[in-house]
Amino acid sequence: MPASRATPSADSPLVLPALEALAGPVLLIDAQQRVTVATPEAQARLGSAAVRPGTPLAEALPLTEGTRGLEALLFQGRQVEAPLHTGGRVHVMQVRALALSQGARRLGWVVLLGAETETEGSEENDAEETFHGMWTRDAGMKRLFRIVEKVARTESSVLVRGESGTGKELVANALHAISERRKGPFRAINCAALPPSLLESELFGHVRGAFTGAVRDSPGHFRLADKGTLFLDEVGDMPLELQGKLLRVLETHTVIPVGGRAPVPVNVRIVAATHRPLRREVEAGRFRADLMYRLRVVPLFLPSLRERRGDILPLARRFLDELEQSGTRRVERFSPGARRLLESHGWPGNVRELRNVMEYAYVIGEGPVLHEADLPPEFSEPRPPPAPSEPARRTPPPEFPSSAGEDHDPATLRAALARAGGNRTEAARMLGISRVTLWRRLRAAGNTGKR
Predict the structure, then answer these.
(1) Judging by beta carbons within 10 Å of its beta carbon (0-12, 13-18, 19+), is residue 343 exposed, middle or buried?
(2) pLDDT per residue over 353-367, tens digit each?
(3) pLDDT of 225-254, one tens digit each?
(4) Options 1.10.10, 1.25.40, 3.40.50, 2.60.20; which CATH number does 398-451 get?
(5) Does 395 score more than 50 pLDDT?
(6) Assigned CATH class of 129-301
(7) pLDDT tens digits for 63-94?
(8) How many angstroms from the chain centroid is the CA of residue 351?
(9) Is the pLDDT of residue 292 over 70?
(10) 185: nearest Cα among 129, 231, 124
(11) What is the dihedral of CA 130, 131, 133, 134, to 10 degrees?
(12) Strand (E) or helix (H) holding 135
């Protein structure tokens, strides 16, 4: 009878050292994004308590880009960074992931912990920094500022990805202000705020008589931004028929005005922005892949305010300081309850929402302490359950349902907008309509709301 062979199990003393000898420090992650196994060096780097079996990867390995970084690591195959705090010093670790599959079934991932580099002035990483209108103490934001400085020295097209209110236009302004084009014009247009026919004219211009009401020639934003920078906000909402025309402008460096025939040369750097992943828009057939590649030469990811919670109270204090310069009230401190509500709020409108909340609290409250009662009503309302952490999740049902084809009344529109902190995208989700439809209904009601 042949001798039986011993097969090493996962808890064999040989398996983890062998795995580490081949691949370096490693985490094995299951399909639910939970740690199942950590090699000895991985435990030493992250702490054995942090990588216990069953710990969510997002908790075991905090990434610089937060939840967006987790999606990029696991589902986009992108190398990301994770900060490590040891002995008062801060190191940045490079992290990669390999997907494990069995046919069409996802088994999990192998997460490879790579090289570490020590950041300069680690003890000063909590120091505040102001960068072209943006303020932060967050290490990830500071790293973004350094990337913006590098990219500004080039002519590459930039795509800024971030939620409404995170400061996408401020990043575009910074790219222009630092670049060699700073002496030229900076123009900005919101591609989601205009109907297709008007957007085409605003971008490319028109000649006299091109359509009813065209009583004179109009140069359009491309020609007005010549030798400067053009910021295309919410480019993901641009209609497909205009995407082809935009691609032609980028390829030929010329524009043909509406109603015109002769191409006009333009010298413009494009900075585009979107709140949604363009790759998913391409997969859904709503965005051209060739245009995405032209716009997304250098992608920049702006973290949401809830991903940099250490900035919430300092930013709130800065906004109050600005309000005190033109008002009579002096706020010396936040009450414990107000601090708790501010720090735990979801901030769908991000920094813009925080500014508006502080203005509300400053006007409504009295005295030197900002209390819970000074905050807007939504802070005292029951909160919905937290959203699932999976990057790909089902869209929740509308929170303000209506029958098919029925318009919401103006009060409902305003209530949804207020509950979303002025974020039109979030308000449209609550109402179960598109962002453009929300804008049209607000305009019909005499209130276009906040962007």
Answers:
(1) middle
(2) 999 999 999 999 999
(3) 999 999 999 999 999 989 999 999 999 999
(4) 1.10.10
(5) no
(6) alpha beta
(7) 877 777 788 888 887 888 888 765 556 677 88
(8) 12
(9) yes
(10) 231
(11) -70
(12) strand 134-136
Q: CA–CA distance from 82 to each of 63, 77, 117, 329 (Å)?
A: 4, 15, 11, 42
Residue ranges, CATH 3.30.450.20, the chain: 17-118
Which residue shows structure tokens 């952490």? 389
Residues of the chain with CATH 1.10.8.60: 326-380
Sole residue written with tokens 């967050």: 138
CB-based contact 297:184 (threshold 8 Å): no
The answer to whether the CB of 53 falls within 8 A of the CB of 10 is: no
- In this structure, how many other beta carbons lie within 10 angstroms of the beta carbon of residue 308? 20
Of 245, 246, 302, residue with least CA distance to 273: 302
Mean pLDDT, rounded, of the chain? 82
Q: Residues spanned by CATH 1.10.10 within the chain?
A: 398-451
In the chain, residues under CATH classification 3.40.50.300 are 129-301
**pLDDT score, position 352:** 95
pLDDT band at 349 (very low <50, low <70, confident <90, very high): very high
97, with CB counted inside 10 A (0-12, 13-18, 19+), is buried
**pLDDT of the residue at 446:** 67
Q: How far is CA 279 from CA 222, 283, 393, 432, in A?
A: 25, 6, 16, 23
* CATH assignment, 326-380: 1.10.8.60
Tell which CATH architecture fits domain 17-118: 2-Layer Sandwich (3.30)
What pLDDT, on a 0 to 100 scale, did the predictor assign at position 211? 65
